[in-house]
Amino acid sequence: MTPPPARRRRGPGVPATPLMPRKGAVGRAQMITTYGVGSTVAVDNESFIVAGIDTWDITDAPEIHEHRLARYLGVRSFRLPPASDENSRDGVHVRRFPLWHSCPDCNVLQPVGKFNPAPGTNECGDCKEDLVPSRFVIACPHGHLDDFPYWKWLHRNNRDDGATGACGGTLKLTTNGRTASLRSIVISCTCGVPEVSMEGAFRSSALTNLGVRCEGRRPWLRNAPAEKSCTEAPRTLQRGSSMAWQPIVRSALSIPPWSDGLAALLAPHLDDLRDCESDKELARAVKFLTKTDSTSLEAVRDLLKADQAELADIGEEPTHDTYRMALLEQEYRKLRAGSREADSPHDEEFICEKPQSTSPVLDGTGIVGPMLVKRLREVRALTSFTRVISPDSALDDQIHEAEIALTKQDWLPAMEVRGEGVFFRIDEQRLAAWAAHPEVVHRVDRIRSHHERLLRERAADPQHVPPSPATPRLVMLHTLAHILINEWSLNSGYPAASLRERLYAENTDMAGVLVYTATSDSAGSLGGLVAQGEPDRLAEALRSAVLRAEWCSADPLCIESEVSGAGSVNLAACHACVLLPETSCERNNTLLDRALLVGTPEDPSIGFFHGLTGD
């Protein structure tokens, strides 16, 4: 990743070389999860915003195929973010942001262009000191982003010169260094108005009280017009805070018949293959696409049949939620059924087998049907992002997602993860009986009511908010996945941040958990996690995890908590017991309650695993 290069001139056969030096680089996976389109990247003493994908050069970027996810997101394929090295073209473009900078020597605060820096530099033209990008920006829930209005903030009680910053003075920013608080950051102007600090700038109504409205600017999109119709109130944010950029990433597992090399070749062309009127015409088309005449037509027909079956699953007018649920249900069925390595082609990306051991140690624990996922592939695609508010899967149809391109593209940036995992289910009869317990229902109702209140606050139309997915089975399975990830991080050789959960619990037909490696390199398939799925080890890990969950270092405050977590959508859950790194949890550490696993001191019977440890 580099700053935008100056205009290039080249002769025949001369490669395109940027005239500005490269300032830094980020990993391809980081372009999906950490430094994606619309995010700010700090490089040395400079700050840039990643430009939209319609400006990326993807000439050499590898193509990724995942048919089910591509259909869900309405694109043809996915691309790995372009790599950037000394011998490659500029792949990912960035733009300087924020534009307001200050000089640490003369303390002048103004747009970077007014410092008259030398070409290719970011320094004060007078002091020759490196400029410091503004720490503060403003953003709104619609994803718009702008520089902080320093002039209005300073002159809020002195508007004789209007609100255009035409007082004739020069703004200065100083830091007295006495404390780390905003009170120590002082803004002044040579026009003589009283200086003010940045204290209070982060209040929700601070900018509204100044008459500052969202200008609808999208600096990450080249030539994007400002959306002047935006009615959202802007908020002050730290430039690098997590709330300034939250990615919306959609993912899917590669499952048969879409998980081998043949599917990757033919999936983009299924509509054309379906139009073939005879076996001869089909064979000719397949030979052209695969560059070989040894492809089995029966395998091609199986792909076409599977495609038709999946279309039937989602219906004629599928919604966003219908697509998502269809993805999960298809994966759940395949994980239950399994796929033996001995019966699979060598390029099969999904190997899921029953444990070799038939030990009865899991009897009575509530866990059934463990499966060893010895090989899996997951594709994660960046579709959009949010600012100010966190994304929530329950608001997929309502939350405002900021665009990653000014014009519609037929591809999305994505990464693929190859690794291993353990899948297991919960005994349905025991689960149904436990979920009917009045106190269990009461606790989950409290979580659901808080979640639905949060959804109404974030929804574009508060009168038509979808119900919260919080149910006893979802909250219990979610919390169980968390304590097992913490336990397996001690035994499997993977840190908790390299493990990830995938929940199958949003309807009454599913009650399963997949814990798998979440790393995108070769460390994702060392075999340490699969080994934990053998019944003896799984039973031992379950008992140890439940025993740890019975006591938290924050007890009794944690177990007696009425609300906890961001948005108050957890009960007994904190960083000392069940919360995980953000990369590991698919629900942003919400909808958790360990009391549903181990019970409370007043009523231990509400714990699904009460009595498992023999206490």
The Rg value, from CA coordinates, equals: 27 Å
Structural class label: alpha+beta
**Number of DSSP E strands:** 20
Distance between the termini: 56 Å
Number of helices: 14
State the low-pLDDT regions, or none: 2-20
- The percent range for strand residues is 15-25%
Q: What's the overall average pLDDT, rounded?
A: 86
How helical, in percent, are the residues? 10-25%
Shape: globular
Question: Main sheet?
Answer: 8 strands, mixed
Mind sketching the topology for me?
Blueprint: H1 30-33, E1 40-43, E2 46-50, E3 63-64, H2 67-73, E4 77-79, E5 94-96, E6 100-102, E7 109-111, E8 132-133, E9 136-139, E10 145-147, H3 150-154, E11 171-175, E12 185-189, E13 196-197, H4 206-209, E14 235-238, E15 246-253, H5 261-266, H6 270-274, H7 279-290, H8 297-314, H9 320-337, E16 351-353, E17 367-386, E18 411-426, H10 428-435, H11 438-458, H12 472-491, E19 499-504, E20 512-517, H13 535-549, H14 595-598
Parallel strand pairs: 4-18
Antiparallel strand pairs: 1-2, 2-5, 3-4, 6-7, 6-8, 9-10, 9-14, 11-12, 12-13, 15-17, 16-17, 17-18, 18-20, 19-20
